[in-house]
Amino acid sequence: MRKLPDRLFCKRSVLLNILQMSKLFFGLNMKAFKFLPITILSSAVFAETSAVASATTQVAEINVATPNALNTVDTVLPQLSFEAQQARAAAMARQAESFIQRAEEERIAAEKLAQAKNRLNQEIAPNQLLLASTIAKVYLDNEFSSIWSDKRATQLFLKEYAAFAASGVSAKSTKALQQILNTPEDSFARDILLTDSFLDYLYYNKNVGRNADKWLYRLGSYVTKAPAESHVSAWLRAVRNGSAVQYISALIPNNHIYRETVDRLFTMSPNSTASVAKKAANSKNTKGQKGKAQESAAGGSTTFAKLALNAQRLRLIPSFTNGIFVNIPSYQLYYMRDGKQVLQSKVIVGRDDRRTPVMYSKLSNVVVNPPWNVPPTIKAKDLIPKFSRNPGMVERSGYEILDGRGNKISPSNINWAQYKGKENTFPYHIRQKPGDNAALGLYKFNMPSSDAIYLHDTPNRGLFGKNDRALSSGCVRVAKSDELATLLLKEAGWNDSKKQGVLASRKTTSVPIRSDNPVYLYYVTAWVENGKVHTLPDIYKYDVNLPRVSIDWMKVKNVI
């Protein structure tokens, strides 16, 4: 048998001593059995003096070779009955046997994995794979048989992976795609490269939703990692069951705008541009299509790279069937129910230094006559400097100052001068009471958000007349907030009479929303819909310095 590594050999020898001594003492009388701890500890000490720290750790798992265990053995063991001592020795023996078995299984598994890696290295150099160790295990589990024998599954995957690689999100993925294209189709090396790239795509696909703000808006932050074992296992089961096409199809968003945008890429080349649709005189129908904002630039062209990147941003939207959709650079909100548009409204979004984040949430409630608990940033940067100059503005503007217990503090009792230049140290909360002129207006539409982002009404109606409406501190102001509230409150069982009565009372009332209303705040500046390319201004400069990818696009077209 192959010699064990020193670390495992020491652990194994110690535990064999324990196992043998435990069994030896089963047949002895009570007096002789009391020497068992001394013999066991002698074995452990031998391992320790051999400078094998890990052996001590493993022995500690069975309550020997540690100071605490030594004390326990000296005081407790002699008090046990002979039968109890035998049971203790039997338990120690079972643990020792279990560890030895596990160690042997780990050794065999490591040896097989090393052999698998060596076999793969004969086909492809290790530095050419994104996930060499994971790939070795996949082929080991699959007995080194081909995984990509289904040509349709291969074509479907390569189309999706090419669209991802073209986006510039991952330079390594772009290189991996080119390696596939440069490798003979029927070779085992190509099968390996396809698997390597698929696991890269699988990890991206399963995690892009929670990492979109980094991966899709700060290019260069994506790092390839092995997908979860459960996802790899599910895929391999599909391959073995002949349902690889169905598995890959389920990874593709059920969003026709995404599919149209991806399809357009394969009519272009990385160096080409696409004509942009002129703004239609009557754009109502196209705007309503799947709730998608459709404000097009007047003429011009858009690059392949911009479409490719925005296609990946579109995959964050499963479909435009139900919910509230706000494409941030379009300054428009769409409310969709059962695939039909029931409301379109202008919105105001965060200015460049206080950007509205890309996010997905669910509407939880509508607050009628909402107070405004001023966020720390606005409090420190906007209100405290203003109130320091004129404390009388606090009450005139409908604000109140509260301590940590909710007690009101008179503005005249605050030494505002001491917070000049130290606004972040202001120890009180600032809240604005409900009212026609309150910052949140008459309605607030709540949704869980780590950034404290929500939709709301506003008394400043004139701002909706501006073309550039990146004006807020991050939240989304809705022009037709009364219409949106009416629709949502109706779903909650309210009629117009009840709504008007609560508004007149000025009483703050929170109304849970019964229906499932997802909220998507997304950022897409170029897409294809109904065969036309549409673009929007890049208000947050997320598209600046789009990377040029190096892909033989003709080869891509030939294999899909």
UniProtKB/TrEMBL annotation:
Organism: Bibersteinia trehalosi USDA-ARS-USMARC-190
Gene Ontology MF: a single term: transferase activity
Span list, region Disordered: 277-297
Keyword Ribonucleoprotein assigned: no
Superkingdom, taxonomy of origin: Bacteria
Residues at the active site: H456, C475
Ranges for domain L,D-TPase catalytic: 322-505
Keyword Thylakoid listed: no
Name recorded for this polypeptide: Periplasmic protein
Keywords: Cell shape, Cell wall biogenesis/degradation, Coiled coil, Peptidoglycan synthesis, Transferase
Pathway named in the protein's UniProt entry: Cell wall biogenesis; peptidoglycan biosynthesis
Biased composition (Low complexity): 277-286
InterPro entries assigned: LD-transpeptidase_YkuD-like (IPR052905), LD_TPept_cat_dom (IPR005490), LD_TPept_scaffold_dom (IPR045380), Transpep_catalytic_dom (IPR038063)
Family: Belongs to the YkuD family.
A GO BP annotation: regulation of cell shape
Coiled-coil annotated residue ranges, if any: 93-123
